[in-house]
Design a protein that fits this description.
4 copies of one chain form a homotetramer. Chain A is α+β, with helices and mostly antiparallel strands. The first copy, chain A, has 2 domains: about 180 residues, Probable inorganic polyphosphate/atp-NAD kinase, domain 1 (Rossmann fold, 3-Layer(aba) Sandwich); about 140 residues, Tumour Suppressor Smad4 (Sandwich). In chain A, about 20% of the residues lie in helices and about 35% in strands. In chain A, a hairpin with a 3-residue loop joins strand 21 and strand 22. At the A-B interface, strand 16, strand 17, strand 18, strand 19 and helix 7 of A face strand 16, strand 17, strand 18, strand 19 and helix 7 of B.
């Protein structure tokens, strides 16, 4: 159940109840190749010392985590470390802490394909991230604040982000399989249909709410969430869409048309795409650049908004819903950097 | 009170209760310079014969209306014709019938600045219109259907369209006046700030929810509704936004920046714009190209979504919410007309 | 030697001397899968009956050509048909006749990599082509006119089109080889560097005249001739450039930048591109979509205008240099198809 | 007569002979409202002490110039100062020195409407300028170098920039007049046709080389030189064109079309524009934002490249023709400032 609370600006940010007292299940995800990740996580773990938590980490980094805890004289937490296995643990995680940029969050969400996300404490490290609400500089204090708020209000203030769901249907309308696995994905940024290694352009037909919308020839199509509007969609000419404008943007990649401008569709839209009969070769479907399916002739790409939202924890005391977004727009994109004049 | 009813596509179109039995107050607006307007309106009037309606028409066309009714042997309606006066009649109109294109609807809405619009039966004539749901070809039958539905269901199915509200504030925060009239307008398409006859570009600062968003130098700014996204905003490079995606698009006109891409903001956004201190000359503010205010140094342009929506009557039996929109997108804009290949 | 002659418009179209009397070497190229190609070529061949020509055709179509000639009672030409082999015949061809669209011409030019092209009589068939100056409707008469002009003026009026030359250099500055063949190509439309089947974006550095121009991250880069400006470059947002404006357009494909607008460089520019050291994976280089090289880390893509122009025969009596171009712009691209208003 | 000399890059920069020994006629133009202009010009004047020059300055700044010279103990130059009068002096000026940005050069060129420009030593001050090749920091040394080169080589190395010529023709084909003055202008950046204070969009028909190119509806049209391609044309979506690519870009301003992309035409093109018969109101024609003509129904705007080029002095020792251009592209436009990634 999600409650709403009013900001000064009139916006209603999302607040999710969080009533657990202890024995929290916490997933920690960081950039693998960055040795500085471990000391920061060590500090993060320490903040939860009165909660009897279990900390889930990815297999390959388990030993490094342990070493770091011992080094930091936090060996009492070593036994609380467990290898994360999405099949077993997806449903029980209470909180996620990520350390990196947006890519780390996208990757983490690939493990949460059957439920809305647990609240994510997203810490920026190295690269800037639109979704990262915390910085390693103040992370100890910030986590204290979050925990204090949970204690007092039994809830977490979050930014609720829509995902977009793609599934590939075969000619009987069933979800197609690749290597025995269903071709289905809930993406946080975007679904892309492109030609992959294919030399020829793709010829596709697009249906909106079961009616033919248009045929197109080009390098591909992007179906983006507002979160994805500052990623690949933007580089293909799509508009920048604020998170609260829940919608699906359809943005063509290098279309053979002078007039195929991006269109922004309501969240409730149902989109279908198929290769036309005179298309040569096959296509490729990807979600957040993570999962990749082949798109075969006869198959239908079915796209709609996902029921499984993502919740990113944000500071409770900020009055203005779009403040961070504005700051990042200018800082990360150099949006509207004027000519020298 | 607006009820919602579910479409096949999952969308919820708007349905407004309409419980009047008779003595309807009907406003008729058409293109003045088109003599063919009068015979069509004559047919429209006839459909309401059992309602004891008053028909309001604009002053300059009153006599032509009367002549037409007599010519069509409908002289019993002549006394039902009254000169429309927005000051007296804005609040009492029950239904509007427009004959023309989108421009006719925009013009009509300039008379409804203090209330949401009465339901509009928008008939396409001459030019195509995104908002026109009816065609003169079948208008008699279509109005019969609408009236039948009112009788049975006591309601009207409408497309609900947001407006955008601009007011100019003086340095004390009061609404500024021009010739004694408050500088305030509810626009259906867009608010435009531009340099008017001024030779120099405008230098402006934009605030979002009371925080500085950006400074800009250029020909002007467009703040568009979804309805306006296929009008001037589009010609300045803005995205096409479907009506259900309630939002405000900020689109610059010829900005002196390579990176000032359009952004789409939530409906609840509050925007303020002012000329910077080093701006030369003054600006111009217009709404739907109808009302024009001067923008003086020190004044603040305040923009937010309007409370006064516009309701356009649509066919009750169409299953798909975006069907007409798709059709018009392709027909009116040549959207995605592919290269010959 | 190329002479110039003045058009009414002031432009100087190209005229190439053509002084051969007979024993012409003619290359015929058509779309393979189109059975209607053969009857048209049969008519073309007949026009050259007093020239003692040899007709070169591609291996796979040789027999079909012969069958057609016999069917058309032109069996005296059967012995004049020879299988084309670019290695042996590239240097001796006097005239080319193509039947198809622009794709057929691009394909044909892949066989003329060591010389400027022989004059091409480009006949449009099936698809529209920017470069096709003749139509199958009047082809017999048109060829008569061309031959008559050759007889009288000893020259051919042509549209001279620049090509663009790519070569891949290894770390010693030598042309790299792939399967023993030098990585070098003269393209008529464009050179494209993209990521091919690679999942990651390409990080590249671009040098102009041996100085660093910019670093870029994205799907790839297009280096286009004016001829290519209405092909792939256009779908990536590049400008439309008239043939006489000899230049190289640099157009990024989905760049991770809001401000990487296309730039148009002088014909004499020398461009170099290399993958940056932190780029993941390898790239792909293609010319007119025909030849494809792998781009390996450490290699340098060297791009400059080619010395080997392409000459497309055009009507001698047209007064205006850009007339056909204008017509095709509107017909093929739907360029500036206005909104319905 | 202009000679050509080869750069390392293969480009041929322009070199103009300059064989005068003394009694030079020098025009000095600076930003009026900037008091720091005078000390710099004082230093400039001193460098010419052995030439017996006459220095022309604008009327309003004559006294300030004199005061500065006296203050700088250069009173021997006071008598060499003369008020500039374009009617009398346009033809006799040998060299121009400008101090400011590109705007100062554009303004200065408005006085040279009947001849190609004298060589301009363009000094950057305050704002960055694409055309400014010198900076106040080293201006004394730089002028010494220029003078030394003149002495030795009897020439000046310049960047040759094309201008674009507009004239308004009446219905008899004569140049129309406004207040007795011919409507004609040679612009260095661009010619703009827009609606000025008019509320309605302009409907125009465009002819290329006397054939109809297209009809258009919108805010206006820009006809830009390569020099102007980084100015207003760029803010309307036009491509960036390097100076050596002599051409005319046609760029629409907010056109009512999804497909009116910019086109780049050869230098020899002749363009004509007229208001269509159903256009409402009148238009406005401007050149470099300086001269403004009304455009009346029936008049024809005639546009072609000008014979009167502009010569900007550049350093003789720079090997690479486009070096400065590249530097300014990145510095002034933030061209291709990548996303943070």
């Amino acid at each position: 159940v999600i409650e709403e609370k009013e900001f000064e600006c009139g916006c209603k940010p999302s607040v999710i109840p969080f009533e657990k007292n202890d024995s929290w299940q916490i997933l920690l995800v960081g950039k693998l190749n960055d040795p500085e990740v471990f000391p920061v996580f060590s500090q993060v773990i320490k903040q939860f010392k009165d909660k009897q938590c279990t900390f889930y980490v990815e297999n390959h980094s388990l030993q490094k985590f342990k070493d770091q805890l011992i080094k930091d004289q936090l060996s009492e937490f070593v036994d609380a470390l467990t290898e994360f296995n999405s099949q077993n643990h997806e449903s029980i995680i209470d909180i996620i802490v990520t350390l990196g940029g947006d890519g780390t969050i996208l990757y983490t969400m690939s493990h949460f394909q059957n439920r809305y996300s647990p609240p994510i404490i997203a810490i920026e490290k190295g690269t800037l991230g639109f979704m990262c609400m915390y910085n390693i500089q103040n992370i100890e204090k910030d986590i204290q604040k979050i925990l204090q708020n949970v204690k007092v209000n039994r809830n977490l203030m979050v930014e609720r982000k829509m995902r977009i769901h793609v599934k590939i249907l075969d000619d009987k309308g069933n979800i197609a399989k690749q290597n025995g696995v269903e071709k289905s994905y809930h993406a946080l940024n975007e679904i892309v249909i492109d030609r992959g290694p294919n030399a020829s352009c793709l010829k596709m037909e697009i249906f909106l709410n079961n009616e033919p919308l248009t045929k197109t020839l080009g390098d591909g199509l992007i179906f983006s969430t507002p979160t994805g509007s500052t990623a690949y969609s933007l580089s293909a000419g799509g508009p920048i869409i604020q998170n609260e404008v829940r919608s699906i943007s359809l943005v063509p990649i290098c279309p053979f048309s002078l007039s195929f401008r991006p269109i922004v569709l309501p969240e409730c839209s149902e989109l279908k795409v198929k290769l036309t009969e005179d298309n040569r070769g096959q296509g490729k479907v990807s979600g957040d650049g993570q999962k990749i399916f082949d798109l075969l002739p006869g198959e239908i790409v079915h796209i709609e908004s996902s029921d499984l939202d993502v919740y990113v924890v944000r500071e409770t005391f900020k009055a203005n819903n779009v403040h961070e977004w504005m700051v990042k727009l200018k800082k990360m994109l150099n949006w509207n950097s004027n000519f020298s004049k």
